[in-house]
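Sample entry follows:

:::
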Amino acid sequence: MHDLIGTWAQIDGQPYPGLAFSFEPDGTFSAVYELMSISSAGTYKTEGELIEMNQTQHSFGLVGLFVGRYKVEGSRLLLNVVAAGAQERPSDLNGAVVYEKLT
């Protein structure tokens, strides 16, 4: 989990450039997408390359469990998550969204 700690923003060319996730050491996360005035928060846990994010707060009510995979490559984060129950956990990082580390 330690490699995930920090703030990461989607890079240009991704679905929501500027969307930033902050992962804290205590297992909480927050997200902000200023362009659309959206914020969210919740808890997360990792095991190897697997990640579960339980989003408990969201500006538009998009709450619930999201499951997927992640990988940190230097200053880049690859994150591929889907809503649990709606889809199967991604089996790899194909289609992952790319984030750049801010802090």
